[in-house]
Input
Amino acid sequence: MNDRSLGALIILFSLIFMAGYFVWAFPWIFGETVNNLIGPISEWAFKLPVALAVYMILAIILWIGYTMVTTPPPMPLERPLEIEREEVSGIMEAEGEER
Output
């Protein structure tokens, strides 16, 4: 499946989902039959997405906290600079001995 056909399929499913969600959220617009079928559960059309959004945000916050807890602290900057100075001075001493 190439990118264009995959994109068209995504558009199609999005449009179908949007239409279905609209019917689910506002069943009274489509007559008494649809309202009687979907009416009692249509309040979940608003509750469910809000609950999912809250849980997604809380999951991201949980992930950030977990990452902060499990990541080791960074190495202090002074230590690598001291090592570099020792290496540079050792190289300079070695060059001085060769000359």
Observations:
- Residues 3-73 form one domain.
- The chain has a mean pLDDT of 82.
